[in-house]
Amino acid sequence: MSVSTLQRLFKAAYGMSVMAFQRSERLNAARALLMEGRLTVGEAGYRAGYSTVSNFSSAFQRNFGYPPSACMRR
Predict the structure, then answer these.
(1) Is 51 part of any domain?
(2) Within-domain flag for 2
(3) Domain tally for the chain?
(4) Full domain range(s) for residue 67
(5) What is the tens place of the pLDDT at every residue in 9-43?
(6) Would you say residue 72 has pLDDT above 80?
(7) Is residue 17 assigned to a domain?
(8) Fewest CB within a 10 Å sphere: which of 27, 29, 54, 59?
């Protein structure tokens, strides 16, 4: 199967590209880590594959509609 065929079939099945799915899964994992309350926003972002806190925060806000700090246990 070609790469383009796989990407097209994946998008038809999941409603998003492979990259968007991967990003969504990484952000969901980071949100779960933040909700446990053991990591800072920077640490969760790093574990999700982001090199800067600002990029992680922007992607998180776009995906969930609220900043990552809102997930942290107080």
Answers:
(1) yes
(2) no
(3) 1
(4) 23-74
(5) 999 999 999 999 999 999 999 999 999 888 899 99
(6) no
(7) no
(8) 54
CATH of residue 49? 1.10.10.60
CA distance 61 to 10: 25
Q: pTM to 2 decimals?
A: 0.83
Determine contact, residues 68/60, Cβ cutoff 8 Å: yes
User: Residue 48: is it exposed, middle or buried by C-beta count within 10 angstroms (0-12/13-18/19+)?
Assistant: buried
Helix segments in 37-73, DSSP class H: 41-47, 53-64
Instruction: Write down the residue that tokens 């969504």 correspond to.
Output: 24
For the chain, report the end-to-end CA distance as a whole number of angstroms: 49
Q: Which residues contact 17 (CB under 8 A, 6 or more apart)?
A: 7, 10, 11
Phi, psi values for residue 52, rounded to 5°: -130, 150
